[in-house]
Structures are given as structure tokens and as C-alpha cells.
Amino acid sequence: CQPVPKPESRVEVCDLNPCPPRWKVTPAGPCSSSCGLGLAVQLVTCVQILHGQEVLQEEHLCPVAEKPLTSVPCVIRTCSYEWSFSEWSECSASCGNGIQTRQDFCLSSLTHKPVNPLFCRRFPKAIVVRGCSAGPCPEQEGPLSPGAELQPVTPATHPTRAAAGTEHGHQDLDVPLSAGPREQTKPGGGEEDTANRCSPCVCGNLFLNATGIINMTGVESRDCTVAIGRPLREEISVTILESSLNCSAGEVLLFSGRMMWRTGCRKLPLSLINSRTNTLIVKQRVVLPGNGVILQYNSRTATKKYYQDCDQQLFGPQGEIVNPVQLPDQRQEVVCRTFITVAPRQRISIRALNPDLGPEGNHTHFNYILVRDVSTMKTVVFHGKQQFLWQSTGSQAEIEFHE
């Protein structure tokens, strides 16, 4: 091109319209988990180029449907610790119902040796106690299981079967879900035991009074189940006032709580059962119409604390459960539990209304939820922002909040 004169260089404006606002993403911050799957927070802003400068704009000016996520998955390294368990022990009862236990320990995946359990605190731990059955006992009554006591009681004057129907108060599920049961009395100051006056109505009820008499004679169904509930700081004892069970026909009385199982038929009158917990389920199986037992229950302050300060015991047909809140400088190696007990004729449904367990929302460090069905001892784990609807097979459930 040398023989041809070179034209002058020029710059022409091609478009005077500014670029539309767009989303800008800054690099993600640190991962929320030191190992395994975690979340990293990234800053997302709406910006626009005006006169060659980046100007911050309001978010509604950017396309909402195209907004990037503020949290993205991240993995720093594979977790090198996990919970491991020994084999289940033999059933504690040679016949009837009992329990099985197993030991848990934190295992290093690198050395395959146990380490301090604190290394596994981020991971949910499976159950270490479960129910078991070794088949029916020859006389339909099994040996006393650990945690239960059967003691003779000095005979004392007690209401007869006819009088037992009107002397003690019965309280069903007319209370909201709360941290403790409420005592209710009938108008006029006198208590009336509807369940004992109409003994077939007893089955399937939940008794929340501090003391009372339960008449389970003359029920129409073969299986009759009642539950007794008190605050966590109390324990329940039951005295069998009368029994007309026919042991030879296979009739039996069963007691179950979180810490004991007990079945029996013979030598029941004037016997004492100590549950050592604040809830107790009594189930009666009869063959012949009209047979049954009359129980008197009492509650007292527990001799041993078997719960955490952050635990809750809830009764009632409905209510709200909020996971515990702890600040970073208040972190403790504590598993917070919620125990739910309803009437044996009812079932429990738990729905996650706000499943955001992130530390930015409510300052909680509990991001795993374990829901246990007490009747089957099966545990389901929910994590993160997972919405769920859980339903029980029985009338008792336990919830644990874990880091």
C-alpha cells in the first residue's frame, strides 16, 4: 500500500444507548464445612456501565429470573472421620420384650482406629438402643428388665372397683402442645373421672394429672392401651390395686417407657412399678370379657436427671417446635431433644414450616434434624434446607437437633 496515501485514523460513536443492568458475582467466600459437602456464600449485586464506569443499581432493575445463587456447594476435602458401631448385643430378655444395645465410636478413615468423639460431632449418629422380642414367655410374663422395679406394697384401704370410677380426675388431650401438661378441673371445683365412670372409654386416652386411678376392667376390646405423662423432671410409679386377668388364657399386662419394659400377669395385685421416666404406656390384653386391672398412678420428682436442660416434653394435639438457638461463643457439645407424647389412639405428624437452618438466618448451629419413631425405633435424618412431612406409626416421637 506504500504508493497509496494512508487515510487518517478516526473513531466514530456507534451506539449511544447504555448497556442494560446486569448481575455481578464476586468470588465465593470460605466453605461452611471443613470437610464433606458445605456451602460458600458469594456476593451478588446489580451493576450497570455508565460512561465507562460500573455503577451499583437496585436489584429490581436486573432480571430476577437470571439472578445467580448467593450460596454455592463446595467441598474442601473428603471427611476422614465417621461413626462406627459394634454388633448389637443379645436381647436383654430371654422371652417377651427386651432391649438391645451397641457401642458407638468415632473412626478415622485414614488409620481405621478410634479417635476422640469430638471429631465426629458434625455427623448424625444412629441409635444405640432398640427394642427386641425373644418370643412369648411360657406364662406370658417375662423377667424384670433393667430400669424397672417390682416391689410388694403394704395392703392399704383403697377404692373398690365400683368406687374407683368417681374418686380421681382424668384428663385427656384438651391441652395445647406445651413444655408441660396442664391440670384441668371441672367447673365447680370438683374433679370428675369420665374414663373410670365409663371404663370402656379409658382405652386410647392420655392421663396428665399428678395422680389418679385407671379402671381397665370391662373394656370391650381385647387390647386396651393408656398413656401417663408428666413433666421431664418427674417420674411415674404405678400400683396395681386389683387384677382379674386370666393368666392361663394368655391375658397379660405390659408396661413400656424409654428406660424399661415389663410384662406380667401373675402376682400383680398390690405390686409397684417404677418407670423412672416421665411417660409410661400401659397395655392390657384380655381374652375373656369383663377381665382387667385397676391401676393407681402417682408422680414424684425424679431421683436421677436423665435429660438435658435444653430438652422439652410436649403433650397435646398440635403445636410448634423451634430448633435451639446458640451464639458462636456459646457452643456446647449437647444434643437437644424434644419428646412428643399423644394419646395412644392418635398419631403424630411433623411438618417443616421453615427449614432454613443456615447460621445467617437464626444463629443456630444445629443443621441436622433426627426424628425417631419410638414404636419402631427407626430414625429419619433431615439436613439443610430440606422440607419434609413426617408421620409416626405410634403415639410417641423424639426429635434431636445436631450440628
UniProtKB/TrEMBL annotation:
<dbReference type="GO" id="GO:0030198">
    <property type="term" value="P:extracellular matrix organization"/>
</dbReference>
<dbReference type="InterPro" id="IPR036383">
    <property type="entry name" value="TSP1_rpt_sf"/>
</dbReference>
<dbReference type="InterPro" id="IPR000884">
    <property type="entry name" value="TSP1_rpt"/>
</dbReference>
<dbReference type="GO" id="GO:0031012">
    <property type="term" value="C:extracellular matrix"/>
</dbReference>
<dbReference type="InterPro" id="IPR035914">
    <property type="entry name" value="Sperma_CUB_dom_sf"/>
</dbReference>
<protein>
    <submittedName>
        <fullName>ATS13 metalloproteinase</fullName>
    </submittedName>
</protein>
<dbReference type="InterPro" id="IPR050439">
    <property type="entry name" value="ADAMTS_ADAMTS-like"/>
</dbReference>
<feature type="region of interest" description="Disordered">
    <location>
        <begin position="140"/>
        <end position="194"/>
    </location>
</feature>
<dbReference type="GO" id="GO:0006508">
    <property type="term" value="P:proteolysis"/>
</dbReference>
<dbReference type="Pfam" id="PF19030">
    <property type="entry name" value="TSP1_ADAMTS"/>
</dbReference>
<keyword id="KW-0964">Secreted</keyword>
<dbReference type="GO" id="GO:0004222">
    <property type="term" value="F:metalloendopeptidase activity"/>
</dbReference>
<dbReference type="GO" id="GO:0005576">
    <property type="term" value="C:extracellular region"/>
</dbReference>
